[in-house]
Structure formats: structure tokens, C-alpha cells
Amino acid sequence: MELSVLNIKGQATGKTVSLSDEVFGIEPNEHVVYLDVKQYLANQRQGTHKSKERAEVSYSTRKIKRQKGTGGARAGSIKSPVFVGGGRVFGPRPRDYSFKLNKKVKALARKSVLSQKAKANGISVVEDFTFDAPKTKQYLSFLSALSLTGKKTLLILPEYNNNVYLSGRNIPKTNITTAGDVNTYDLMNAEVLLISETAVSKLENLLNK
């Protein structure tokens, strides 16, 4: 598949980029996409949830009433879960939600999403660019020139660019990453992928290892 390269003003530069069928033209595997997104979301969880159980509630351990003759159920401690303020039964404890996923599975997931985006015409290639200084207004003009204002976009750069990142980080529905840090969740979450000219080849090299 060949795409024309656009400049930051949304105009065709006359150059074209050929997208590799090995990365942008495979048959998508939905299950590995699900696994990769599941792992990404699981890794975002802090897992610091905690509630006090019976042994951890700070109350007296004395027997609160006599065993028999009250007409009610027997009770040994106010820490019991049946009382208001008592400990919780099998409450949540801190845990690690992350799990392992093979590199080849993660690569296949990214290839699958890139192929889906390419098939749906959801990829635009822009020539390499930078800003002289962080200016949100410049990034908004860039999106406006490409008719992407208000759409969820993911800009993939070959390497980190501080001025470009700072220019776009406060814009809603806008995400900026590098070819080496791109993940399946961000690819899925974007309506349109903006890939810089150099980042295309870098993505292909990384995913074809």
C-alpha cells in the first residue's frame, strides 16, 4: 500500500511511502489484540486496595453479651462482620495485576491494529517536522490543516521531540508517542494515526524483528 506524504499544512509533498504488507497488510488476529489491551490495562492498576478484616479492626475483644438467654443469636466479639463497623469478610488485599505476554504476541497485536487502520484509511503519513518552541497553537493549526480537529489522533514520531510533545499534550483527544513506545491500546483508541515519514520504517523494523 502506498500513501502520499503530507506536510504540516496538510498539503501533498509529492513524495509517497510504501507500507509493508508484513506490518500493515496482515490478517488481523483479534484475540492477541484483546490479550495485549488486557495486559496494558492490568498494568495500569495500582492494586493498593485494602479493607480491614476481623483481626485488623481496632475494637475490644471482650464478649459483648452472655451466651444464652438473651433471645438473640450468640455473639463473641464486636469485631464480627455481622456488626456495623466490624471487619470485612475476605476483603480486598494489595496485589499485582500485571501478567506476562510474549514479545511476539505483542508485536502481532500491534501489526493487527495497524493493518485494521490501514484497511479503514485511518493512517496518514506526514513528513518529519519539529517546532522551534512549544506552542499549542501550532499543533492546533497542524490538526486543523489535516481536518482532524476534535478527532482522536495518535502522532507517532521516530524519537522523542520535546517541543512537539509539549505543544500537543494539553489538547483533548490528542496523544503523541514514539515508534519504540507505541502500544496496542493507544493504537486502538485513536481514530486516526499520524505517522511521521521516518517513523514508518522504524515501526516496520521494530515489528519485523
From TrEMBL:
Any one GO biological process: translation
A UniProt-annotated Pfam family: Ribosomal_L4
A GO molecular-function annotation: structural constituent of ribosome
Keywords recorded for this protein, A-Z: Ribonucleoprotein, Ribosomal protein, RNA-binding, rRNA-binding
GO cellular component, one term: ribosome
Region (Disordered): 45-75
InterPro entries, alphabetized: Ribosomal_uL4, Ribosomal_uL4-like, Ribosomal_uL4_dom_sf
Described function: One of the primary rRNA binding proteins, this protein initially binds near the 5'-end of the 23S rRNA. It is important during the early stages of 50S assembly. It makes multiple contacts with different domains of the 23S rRNA in the assembled 50S subunit and ribosome.
Homology family: Belongs to the universal ribosomal protein uL4 family.
Subunit structure: Part of the 50S ribosomal subunit.
NCBIfam families: rplD_bact (TIGR03953)
Name by which UniProt lists this protein: Large ribosomal subunit protein uL4
Source species of the chain: Runella defluvii
